[in-house]
Design a protein that fits this description.
Helix content: 55-70%
Radius of gyration: 31 Å
Largest sheet: none
Distance between the termini: 63 Å
């Protein structure tokens, strides 16, 4: 995450700084968070780029960071490796057991399907 996220963060910062220079810092922020429509920006094309970054890149970065931190906390509290835990569970369960019995085939001469006269 550190290698890939830093590249995306750098790209986002470049887009935001360009937005601040081209649109004005307040307008860039308002377009980024959706307070102002991108079509009303001084440079509408760049307003749309900044708005798209605000809708896609920012939530993805925040979600990835939260997921990474939660995973690190869970791994830090784990006292046994996942594979060892699965092996313990398999040993306690006693294995999968024998396969289920197959039903006996119908007697010879019988189609196995109920007839109309049987009422079924």
């Amino acid at each position: 995450m550190i290698k890939h996220a830093s590249l995306w963060l750098l790209c986002f910062m470049v887009v935001y700084v360009l937005g601040g220079v081209l649109l004005g810092w307040r307008a860039a922020y308002e377009v980024l968070v959706g307070l102002k429509p991108p079509a009303e920006a001084a440079v509408p094309v760049f307003g749309y780029v900044l708005s798209l970054a605000g809708w896609l890149i920012v939530p993805a970065f925040i979600g990835a960071t939260a997921g990474y931190l939660v995973t690190r906390k869970i791994e830090g509290r784990r006292t046994i490796a996942l594979e060892a835990l699965l092996e313990q569970m398999r040993a306690r369960a006693g294995g999968p057991g024998p396969p289920p019995r197959m039903p006996a085939p119908p007697p010879a001469g019988s189609s196995g399907a109920p007839s109309r006269s049987s009422g079924l």
